[in-house]
Amino acid sequence: MALVRLDKALSDQGMWSRKDVKSLVRKGRVAVNGCPETDPGRKVDRQEDRVTVDGREIALKEHLYLMLHKPAGVVSATRDVRERTVVDLVPPQLRRPGLFPAGRLDKDTTGMMILTDDGELAHRILSPRSHVPKTYIARLDRPVTEEMVRAFAAGIPLKGEGECLPATLRVRGEQEGEVTICEGMYHQIKRMFAVCGATVLTLKRISMGGLALDPALAEGACRELTAEELELLERRTPPEIGEIAQGGEAD
Ligand code: URA
């Protein structure tokens, strides 16, 4: 049982500041298990206690997990003075303090991003030691060759960073490959192909862990993950090819 202050539990949901919550509580607009509560410091159990504001039940989630379909032209940051960020794409009803992108995609890369306020989860899915796979579709300026497939499997050497972990490259079309890596070095896939003499024209992330990009999620849209999807995110095996095929067209 994790007990937390009522004002924190409510302000964590992103709808009110801590100050606003204190004022709502003092005005008697907040109830815990049906009884009006006037102490903002009262401890509540997020799972067990039923909290309402003006009679409306508020789910007290500890963390938020969103899947975003990142479009090109948006930067993977929380805030930026010049550019639109992935967090700017989140509609107000899904915003909450501390939301950040778990990992980075280049400005021109599209596809699946996870936004969360859970730093531990982000670390677990991003650390190369966790071996959580990330799969991308890359469209190249030339054919994907068997030589590239072998080089990716052996571990591509990147200048100044040693050898990449072995990666899987599958041929999807004449100039299109599906790449799975377990790391996230700067421009990693573009640099891996560059070592093989190819330029990446477009890049799209189609899965993380065992979770595929939702094909119904339009570019720029986001939605909350289900509990089952959250578990899939930490799986060490990518989804079956068939599961991701629909969502997998390179842009
Ligand atoms: N590799 C890249 O080169 N770019 C990305 O955005 C992600 C992986």
What fraction strand? 25-35%
Residue share in helix: 10-25%
Order of helices and strands: EHHEEEEEEEEHEHEEEEHEEEHH
Q: Main sheet, how many strands, which sense, barrel?
A: 9 strands, mixed
- How much is the radius of gyration in Å? 22 Å
The low-pLDDT segments are: none
Overall 3D geometry?
elongated
Structural class: alpha+beta
Mean pLDDT: 93
Tell me the number of strands. 17
Listed once per kind, the bound small molecules are: uracil
| Number of continuous helical runs | 7
Distance between the termini: 46 Å
Sum up the structure in keywords:
single chain; 251 residues; alpha+beta; nine-stranded mixed beta sheet; 17 strands; 27% strand; binds uracil
Describe the structure.
The chain is an alpha+beta fold. 21% of the residues lie in helices and 27% in strands. It is built from 7 helices and 17 strands. The chain has helices spanning 6-11, 18-26, 119-126, 146-154, 188-195, 227-233, 241-245, and strands at residues 3-5, 30-32, 35-36, 43-45, 51-53, 56-57, 65-70, 100-101, 110-116, 134-140, 157-158, 162-163, 168-173, 176-181, 200-208, 211-212, 222-224. The strands form 4 sheets. Strands 7, 8, 9, 10, 13, 14, 15, 16 and 17 form a 9-stranded mixed sheet that branches. β5 (51-53) and β6 (56-57) form a beta hairpin. The site of uracil (URA) has 8 residues, from α5. Uracil binds next to α5.
Brief synopsis:
The protein is of the alpha+beta class and 251 residues long. The chain contains seven helices and 17 strands.
